[in-house]
Design a protein that fits this description.
Length: 417
């Protein structure tokens, strides 16, 4: 168990370098199973979610090694397609391994996946797609058992699920024949996965924004790939500047992946300048409200930034309305923020947040990864001391979170029990 202890009221100032994206790392690490040769992933963040995925690859027989920020994976020695309970049950991305395992071995078995507690997270779209590829999927034993080499076909996703798109792309790489995925997710992390797989000798191509064509029957070969920058990590630190009235320069991000957030931050009164891969942000003394912010699949406003922006709205001049359309139970940080003096109503998928002049420090609990980060951001603004309990949840997605914030002037420390 870990806690963050924050003394609020300091405007952040300085530079932060954005690290590689967690949500690109996880599917790409799963994708290494398709390649029976050594792979080198650079700019790889050392997060608990990443370490857990590395643990899963090891249980499948892969050899892995860290070399600074590079992760070396050799899946040539992988022999089994069965994921054990425990680790695989605790991280949601274990489900990404089904596609690559099927592509490589024509079989895969995994427990139902875990992950953040942000509502019901079914995997029906993943399994429906695999079934459409001729894979036999059995869910009767409390585990997911898949059998049969996937066959190329046309699959139309009812909803552009990020994980289902990634899983099916990888199954399609090892399939017999070509696959066309209709209505795939458009998140930048999907393109990073495609770039990685193309680099390894597979052939995947977007046809407009609503189709991806994947050539089957190719063999993966040794490759090196540098992960794209983490737009959610970058976004979180942008909000840290915004909420403290600070001035930060984010280095190495990609502003084109942050458009919806940058629009919202400008509406809140931030001054933002982009120069090359640097983003310079100055927060206002007190943010303006966001009239109506709606989370949507990319390029819409990301659900993974909703909690952080929620924290920002708690101290806005007026009333903000946030609508969560991607996950069904993603406002648990709202109740925690109330303990710090926030004035908000949570009604199903909508949150109405009436800005208050100031928050006060309190003892709060990180219920999920991004919600936990949001509480820390609120703590940076609040008067007095905030303690964020169960802060290990934040480690799933941010490397050295407290140390990074401290490096730009925050009074924050971590205690491990
Ligand atoms: C990924 C990201 C996560 C982000 C989310 C949405 C990773 C490791 N995680 O999660 O950080 O918040 O995209 O941008 O990349 N759904 C179904 N059936 C399915 C699959 C999904 O109903 O088979 C629903 C989910 O319950 C959810 C919505 O679709 O309500 C979006 O889920 P999805 O896009 O699949 O997100 P993840 O891949 O889980």
């Amino acid at each position: 168990m870990a806690k963050l202890i924050i003394e609020g009221g300091r405007a952040l100032k300085g530079q932060i370098t954005v690290r590689g994206a967690k949500n690109a790392a996880l599917p790409i690490l799963a994708g290494t199973m398709l390649i029976p040769e050594p792979v080198r992933i650079t700019n790889c963040p050392r997060l608990t979610d990443v370490e857990n995925m590395v643990g899963l690859l090891k249980t499948l027989g892969c050899r892995t090694k860290w070399d600074g920020d590079a992760l070396l994976i050799d899946a040539s020695s992988a022999r089994t397609a069965e994921l054990p309970e425990g680790l695989a049950g605790s991280i949601r991305s274990s489900v990404f391994l089904l596609g690559p395992l099927l592509g490589r071995f024509g079989a895969a078995e995994a427990p139902y996946p875990g992950g953040c507690d942000i509502g019901n997270r079914p995997v029906d779209l993943h399994l429906k797609g695999l079934r459409a590829m001729g894979v036999r999927v059995d869910e009767t034993s409390g585990r997911i058992r898949c059998l049969g080499r996937p066959k190329g076909t046309e699959i139309a996703l009812e909803y552009p699920s990020v994980g289902a798109t990634e899983n099916l792309l990888m199954a399609a790489c090892g399939a017999e024949g070509d696959t066309i995925l209709v209505n795939p997710a458009r998140e930048p992390e999907i393109d990073d996965l495609m770039a990685f797989l193309n680099g390894a000798g597979f052939e995947l191509k977007r046809e407009g924004s609503s189709r991806i064509r994947i050539r089957g029957g190719r063999r993966g070969r040794a490759t090196a790939h540098s992960l794209l920058p983490d737009r959610i990590e970058a976004g979180t630190y942008l909000v840290a500047a915004a909420i403290t009235g600070g001035h930060l320069v984010l280095r190495g991000g990609r502003k084109e992946h942050l458009s919806a957030l940058l629009t919202a931050l400008k509406e809140a009164g931030c001054r933002i300048r982009a120069e090359g891969t640097d983003l310079d942000i100055e927060g206002p003394e007190r943010p303006r409200e966001l009239r109506r912010l709606v989370t949507l699949p990319y390029p819409g406003f990301p659900t993974d930034m909703q909690s952080q922006v929620f924290a920002l709205c708690t101290v806005a001049r007026g009333t903000s309305v946030l609508e969560e359309n991607v996950f069904e139970d993603r406002f648990r940080h709202g109740a925690e923020l109330r303990r710090m003096g926030a004035d908000c109503d949570l009604r199903g998928r909508a949150a109405v947040i009436r800005g208050v002049r100031s928050l006060h420090g309190a003892q709060v609990t990180a219920r999920d990864l991004r919600g936990g980060a949001a509480l820390a951001l609120a703590g940076l603004r609040a008067e007095g001391i905030t303690v964020v309990e169960e802060a290990e949840r934040i480690d799933r997605g941010y490397m050295d979170f407290a140390a990074t914030l401290r490096s730009v002037g925050a009074a924050i420390r971590r205690e491990d029990e």
